[in-house]
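Progress against Task 2.4 (sequence-to-structure conversion) is shown through the following example record, which the project officer requested during the mid-term review.
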Amino acid sequence: MTSATVRNSLLQMVVLGAALCAVLAGQRARAGASRSDRVTTDKTGQFSTTAGSHLRVAADQGDIRISTGSDSQVSYRVHLETEADDSNAQQILNAFVLEARNDEDGVVLVCRSPHLRWGHHLSVTISVSVPHNYNMDLTTEGGNIQVGDVQGRVSVATDGGNISAGQIDGPARLITDGGNILAKNVGGDLTAQTGGGDITVGSVAGEAILRTGGGHIRAASIAGAGRLDTGGGNISLEHAGAGLVVSTGGGEIDVGEASGLIRARTGGGGIRVVKSSGPTELETGAGSVYLMQVQNAVRASTGAGGITAWFGPDAKLSSDCRLAAGEGDIVVYLPKELAVTVDARVELGGDHRVVIDPAFPLKVTYGEPDEGSQVVRAEGALNGGGATLVLRTVSGNIRLVLNDAAREKEQMDQLRQQMEEMQRQLEMNLMKIQIPQPPQPPDQP
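C-alpha cells generated for the chain above:
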C-alpha cells in the first residue's frame, strides 16, 4: 500500500468520524429539545382532614399516585403537560377542569380533560398525599394507579392501566380492563380483576377473588377462601388456609400448602400440589399431576399425562380416592401402616403392567387374550382395609411403591426446595412495586 493510499484512508476515517459525531450531537440536541419543548402547569392545594376519612378521585384520564404523609391534611398536585409546538397548547392546559373540595366524609377531586382534536395530546398526573389511616375510591379512564402503604379500605379502577399497591391493611378492590395488578399485602378481603394482565399479590388476610382474562396469577398466601381464575395463564399459590377453587384454560397450576378443600382444573397444563391436608379434586386435559404430601382423600384425572401421588405417614383417608389417566402412568407411594383397600386396573395391558412393592400383599390378575381382554388388575386390603384407592389407566403402567424413611426424607427435601423456589419467584415479582413519593407542597404566593 502506497503512502498516498494510507493518507487517503486516514482522511476518510477522519471525515467519517466527524460526520458520526455531528449525527450524535444532533440526536442529543433533539432529545434535549424534546424533553424541554413542553408546556406544563401544576394545580396544587391542600385540605385539613382527620384520620379514617375518605378520599375520592375521579379522572377521565391520567395516572393517579397516592402516598402517605401528614395525619391532619390531604395535599395534592395535578401535573399537566402538552406539546409546546401545538398552537393550542396553552388553551389545552387552561381548558382542564379540576374540582377539589372538602366534604363531610373527606376530600373529593374530580378531573376533566378537554376534548382534544386529532394530533393533540395532554398528559395528566394526579399525586395525592393522605394520612396513613385513610379510605379511598380512585377511578381513571385511561392511566395507571399507584397506592403506597395505607390503612383502611381501598377501591381502585382503571379502564386499561396497571395497578400497584403496597401494604393495604384493610379490604381492597383492584379492577383494570387490561393492565397488570401488583399488591404487596392485603389485611382484609381482596378482589383483583384484569381483562388480560398478570396478578401478583403477597399475603391476603381474608378471602380472595383473583381473575384475569389470560395472564398469570401469583400469590403468597390466602387465609380465607380463594377463587383464582385465568383464561390461559399459570397459577401459583404458596399457602391456602381455607377452601380453594383454581382454574385456567391451559396453564400450569402450582399450590404449596393447602389446609382446606382444593378444586383445581386446567385445560392442558400440569398440576402440582406440595402439601394437601383437606380433600383434593384435580383435573387436567393433558398435563401431569404431582401430589407430594397427601394427607386426605384425593381425586385426580388427566387425559394424557401421568399422575404421581405421595401419601404421607399421617395420611387419613376420610373417603375413597380415585386417580385416573388416559394414557399416562400412575405412581403411588404408600406408607406401610396405611389402612386402605386397593383397586388398580390397566385397561390395555399388552406392554403395560401393574408393578407392586413386595411390602404390599396384593393379588394381581390378567385378562384372557383369547377372550379379547387385556385388563391387568391388582386388588387387596392393606392393614385390614379402609377407604378404597381406585387407580385407573387405559394405556399406562401402575406402580405401588413403599414410602419408607429414605424416600420420605427425599420427598421432604423436594418439598422444601419447591416451596423456596415458589417464594423466590414471588418475591422477585413483588420487588417491582414502586411506592409513590408525596407531592411537592403547594407553591407559596
